[in-house]
Specification:
Elements (H helix, E strand, L loop, with lengths): L1 H21 L1 E6 L3 E3 L2 E3 L2 E8 L5 E7 L2 E12 L6 E7 L2 E8 L3 E4 L1
Antiparallel strand pairs: 1-4, 2-3, 4-5, 5-6, 6-9, 7-8, 8-9
Length: 107
């Protein structure tokens, strides 16, 4: 019984990072963009999301910058490369979509 429990525990430990990696990718933001009330400076960010469809929560994080969490819609879509789409609101560049390998995150 101890061996079975140990085997299950080891499998679980190795499987968790594999599942987490599926919903985590990096993206380069070339210029300062607004996400909600927060301005994100240009740089490389780790984008992590939980949930699917219209009810996802996206966290955008970079070392030295406070992470930003926002609601988004997950749309499955194959992209050749990652990037962002922005719009202008009140004279500021506002993040509208993050394009990743297999999904678009629409804000």
């Amino acid at each position: 019984m101890k061996r079975l429990f140990g085997s299950i525990l080891i499998c679980t430990i190795f499987a968790v990072p594999a599942f987490a990696a599926k919903n985590s990718q990096t993206v380069t933001i070339p210029t300062t963009v607004q996400v909600g009330s927060t301005a994100l400076p240009a740089g490389d960010y780790k984008v992590t999301w939980t949930g699917s469809g219209d009810s996802a929560q996206v966290t955008i994080a970079k070392k030295g910058v406070a992470p930003v969490t926002a609601a988004a819609k997950v749309v499955e879509h194959k992209n050749d490369h990652s990037g962002i789409a922005t719009g202008t609101q009140n004279g500021k560049q506002v993040l509208q979509t993050i394009l990743l390998k297999d999904v678009n995150l629409v804000f």
